[in-house]
Predict the structure of 3-hydroxyisobutyrate dehydrogenase.
Amino acid sequence: MTTIAFIGLGNMGNPMAANLVKAGHCVTGFDLMAENLATAREHGLSIAADAREAVKDADVVVTMLPAGKHVVAVYEEIAPAARPGTLFIDSSTIDVESARKAHALVADHGHVSVDAPVSGGTGGAAAGTLTFMCGGAEGAFTRAEPILQPMAGRIVHCGGAGAGQAAKICNNMILGISMIGVAEAFVLGEKLGLSHQALFDVASTSSGQCWSLTTYCPVPGPVPTSPANNGYKPGFAAALMLKDLKLAQEAAQGAGAPTPLGAEAAQLYALFNAQGGGGTDFSGIVEFLRGKIA
Ligand code: NAD
């Protein structure tokens, strides 16, 4: 049993923390929202009065917060309050620069850290099947792995500080671009009189094959479990896709990497969001391409 502080008990954090409790760990939680604390209590967490109190006796601190500025602010608050040698795991999706700043901040107080963003969404968080992409020193990763296990389907050590965040935004840039490509192909096929099933049957076994087509097909029918069959209910909301595409663009500009299709995908998702698509699944971009959302 390990004593764990869990900070950020929202849509992802609460079910993740619940899986740590189920695995037999002693988990103390903190969040700014009273209703999230009430849910956490039902999951068997102890609730702390503030973030500093949550971490004071912890061996491990897990954070699941909205963005880089929240992670850096919380780390500034709690790093001095934790016992030296505490392991910090940040599973939020944040910019690489803030992730590296967070690593440096805790190192200054004698702690070790791993950036460990996830894919798999709220379903994966509840089922304990998230993919964790980890960045940090070998020793920190080795300590983090058994803690992540009850929340994970897969755990990959991607490299040093910030490498987990880098892997996450590169993967999601591929996803955003490929979803637009698949959606465009269905819209073109419709105009050419091609049935959705015929295009799917060909492309899913040809060189157009990809996850956006075969697992998350953006038109109803060919893949019954895809959000297209459920009114584009997320799933993975278009607002979160936009967040990740913006992070990828920020990183690309900082690193001087040419990503013209990533930039175009970010613009299309920004328009889709601006026109009210943010709360729908990201595969709903097909409706935007058809001009149904104006
Ligand atoms: P959320 O908004 O539901 O939860 C974030 C929580 O952080 C909120 O409960 C908020 O009150 C809390 N918080 C903010 N500032 C705080 C502070 N200073 N102290 C304590 N608590 C604070 O968001 P979410 O959907 O759980 O996502 C969390 C992170 O996971 C984000 O970075 C997101 O991009 C990433 N993510 C989300 C999904 C998803 O499907 N929801 C999938 C993969 C990754």
Observations:
- The CA atoms of residues 100 and 248 lie 15 Å apart.
- The chain has two domains: 3-160, 166-289.
